[in-house]
Amino acid sequence: MMEPIDIGLWTSGGLLVMVLLGMRVAFAAGMAGFVGLVWLRWNGFDYDPARFGKALEVSVRIAGLTPHSKVSAQVLSLIPVFILIGYMAYYARLTTALFEAAKRWIAWVPGGLAVSTVFATAGFAAVSGASVATAAVFARIAIPEMLKIGYNKQFAAGVVAAGGTLASLIPPSAILVIYAIIVEQDVGKLLLAGFIPGAFSAVVYAVLIIGIAVVFKTVGPPVKGFTWGQRFAALPPALPIVAVVVIIIFFVYNPFGEAWGTPTEGGAIGAFIVFLMALYRGMRWSELKSALLDTAKLTVMIFTIIWGVLIYVRFLGFAELPAAFADWITSLTLSPMLILVCILLAYAVLGMFMDAIGMLLLTLPVVYPAVMALNGGETVAAADSAFGMSGTMCAIWFGILVVKMAEFCLITPPIGLNCFVVAGVRDDLSVQDVFRGVMPFFIADAVTIALLVAFPGIVLYLPSLVG
Amino acid sequence: ATEWNVSVWGKRRAFTEHIEKIAELVSEKTGGEFTMNVSYGGLSKNRENLDGISIGAFEMAQFCAGYHPDKNRLITVLELPFLGVENLDQEVAVSHAIYGHPAVQEEMAQWNAKLLMTSPMPQYNIVGTGEPRDELAEFEGMRVRATGGLGEAFTAVGAVPTSVTATEAYQAMESGVVDTVAFAQHAHLSFGTINQADWWTANLNPGTVNCPVVVNIDAYESLSDEERAALDGSVDEAITHYLANYGELLKKWDAILDEKGVTKVVISDEELAAFRTQAADPIRDAWIAEIEAQGLPGQELFDLLTTTLAQAKGTN
Amino acid sequence: MAGSAAVLEDSSLLSRLDRALLPIERFCALLSGLAIFSLMFLAAYSVVGRKFFGSPLLGYVDYIEAAMPIIAIMGVSYVQRDGTHIRMDMLVGALHGRVLWLFELISVLLILVLIVALAWGAWEHFDRSFDCSRPLCSRDSSIDIGLPTWPSKLVVPVAFGVLVLRLIVQAVGYGRALILGLDNPVAVPLTLTVAEQAQAEASQLAGHE
Ligand code: NA
Ligand code: NA
């Protein structure tokens, strides 16, 4: 007989090998979980050949009920709704409207068009749950305009690739919902927590661009000369975005009184408004059908990883691996802050090679309990904790840090996907060009992450308002 | 050595104390030969616990009848509104009497499950925001978080049961999705609904939910005689421990209401009687008819319940 | 990474099977999309009903939970067809020829074993909730309005059944490529470099503005 924990470790090693060899992450996780369940049970039967059938049968049943059991949850319905909003937003032509409004209102600062691009991507983030789509769309709209007035093309590409990463922090965000579900925390609080760090990241990008534009006069001249009339004329087409932002905020937290409902309802109403806008802008059945197919495809892709990984998590529950890892982490004599920083660095490295959602789903079941234990447990009070915050707040803070880390990895070599997408859209740009242009934004992101770690209040202010 | 996996959910709380206790007792009585590993959500989702028992994923589990009435039609008799159960001792007595009925045992055996003990819960009184609702007329249009038989009872008097999960109840109340929430006291505390409340009904006593602890029959039968005796012999002691623990919590309840500034609403006997005639009788009759129509002893179970309750009231 | 790869076609039996399966898969995915669309209306209806007419939709949560398997699982085979399920392609991206087909074949066969096991387990999960000697054939029902759960449980083995057919087509496709040493086999998603994938994704969005 082996110890369950050893079976847990061996199976996790097998999972790593399957992922490295290029097996689809969802199925590799499901396979690891299924094989682990069989192994664990047969181990319990002392490898009696006559009872292998029984071990297999029970494991098939446990694994086989997991997909249905795990996806049948109301809170998960947020994910498809958030994805749908993003697809509808294309047909509602919200992207062009946003960029035009940002240009007329803020392009007068040094590095004006680049700053406008950052704020337009931040605005689009408020109706888009996915980063890569944002980068692709703005590569087509914003880069030509910047090149027209003499921007360095690498820098212009870098701005768009970096701006695209804001979509997963600013709600709606599919990835924040996924985090909330894995760690069983309040989705509304996590979504709220994303607003300020997302906006904060955008401001840090903007400050960086202005700084660069002031020092290197050749990068990005200001764009002046819009009249107030032109400025106000640019606002109405972008209004649905404001409506969606207000609705999602007010459905989660209404500063003036009772919140209007649940986040799921807020997301659905937001999608409905964008849908009406798209209809008004001429969307018809054929476009709707392809939007629905695209939404379904991305949704199914995400859910397959969710249930695949949850089969593996079910096995880990029987093997008691997360508890053992948490014990090990807390037994280390290093300071908790140092351990946390190491964990974040490990995510930075892992994120260079893996997709963000896959990375979070695979690691969080083990890493999250360890981080919570490090802080003093799920129910610890702020006064007794290692990071000076309650268990719930620590869960939210860590979630935002991890998601920001995953976003950071979208612009890092070798597989920073946003950079590839930008280069893919523009024939005149190579991937190396985009990576070179996005370099300054590494520094911006590193500063942002350091500040979020040092001043958790940036993350926790909004969620702390909600009891 | 025998090691059982036990699947429950949430966090360790008053509602799971008998399980923790029985794990401790069997290990003690068998000198560590028979141990239980209680997992809070790691092995299954609460609504799949009975499936888990059925397929042998784990050996012991807790679930509530209202999660899936069609899986356990007969024990839903214990969730009918206004049965008149006054305290946890009576709740234990009626639950265990129903669990002992052959038809009930047979229905559970279809899931490979043997009913071991109940998790007695006090009456699900409601907390609410705004003006106290102490007259039946004021229940009209009230959005109440209540499930199962309780939900039906509130529907009968014009309220609208609104389904939110227990964990969402606080936010639902804060956001006005519901005006009132029906819970046992420990749940009002652990889900924070008491913090939103302006008032609490002290004597509405509309009913409660029934959450048995079951064991996998194959696992139970493959225990050694000594182990089985240790398990069966620990039930009463575990329940006693649970009741004492819950009693402590109830003692603090009034102090908590004072501290949070929550008004205790007492509803008049006439209003209660009106509620009962509108809600209790039709729902009970419908339940019995529906169960009898499926060839099951609905009337017999209900009579067993009332006679057991009368005896329990006589003895304490 | 959400990019989809190219699947080549010709007049062979395998390719015809591939194309015969595609409409079924696309239909399943469209069902998923329509379920998402209805979800939006359902939530909007529920909020409006509650806010303006004081009558929330009874059983709202039960309906959503019943729809989730259609949303989340129905299109699983459509996504497998063109290789949209994410993976780490550092290694396979560097391989080509027979070595690549060998790795792809092993991977698909492993997935096939897993999905057959899951389809079996998912069928039993459905079967436990299904009993036609009872009203509505229901042996398991939802929490608020007692909706039978078997229809939503049946979605999973059906979707996995389609996926099993797809995996068999892909296994044959890779096996054929391995034996014949093909460069551009039909009926399987061809590995694209990350750059090609991004190009495909970018052009996919091109028509959307
Ligand atoms: Na977003
Ligand atoms: Na990356």
UniProtKB/TrEMBL annotation, chain A:
It holds the Pfam family DctM. It is found in: Cell inner membrane. InterPro entries: DctM, TRAP_DctM. Keywords: Cell inner membrane, Cell membrane, Membrane, Transmembrane, Transmembrane helix, Transport. It is a multi-pass membrane protein. GO terms for cellular component: plasma membrane. The keyword Membrane applies. The chain crosses the membrane at residues 15-40, 71-92, 112-143, 155-182, 194-220, 232-254, 266-283, 295-316, 328-350, 357-374, 386-403, 408-426, 438-462. Residues 14-458 form the TRAP C4-dicarboxylate transport system permease DctM subunit domain. The keyword Zinc-finger does not apply. GO terms for molecular function: transmembrane transporter activity. Part of the tripartite ATP-independent periplasmic (TRAP) transport system. This is TRAP transporter, DctM subunit. It comes from Sedimentitalea nanhaiensis. The lineage of its organism: Bacteria, Pseudomonadati, Pseudomonadota, Alphaproteobacteria, Rhodobacterales.
UniProtKB/TrEMBL annotation, chain C:
It is found in: Cell inner membrane. Part of the tripartite ATP-independent periplasmic (TRAP) transport system. Residues 40-172 form the Tripartite ATP-independent periplasmic transporters DctQ component domain. The chain crosses the membrane at residues 27-48, 60-79, 99-123, 154-174. Belongs to the TRAP transporter small permease family. This is TRAP transporter small permease protein. GO terms for molecular function: transmembrane transporter activity. The complex comprises the extracytoplasmic solute receptor protein and the two transmembrane proteins. Its main location: membrane. Keywords: Cell inner membrane, Cell membrane, Membrane, Transmembrane, Transmembrane helix, Transport. It holds the Pfam family DctQ. It comes from the Bacteria. InterPro entries: DctQ, TRAP_DctQ. PANTHER family: 2,3-DIKETO-L-GULONATE TRAP TRANSPORTER SMALL PERMEASE PROTEIN YIAM, TRAP TRANSPORTER SMALL PERMEASE PROTEIN. It is a multi-pass membrane protein. GO terms for cellular component: plasma membrane. One of its GO terms (biological process) is C4-dicarboxylate transport.
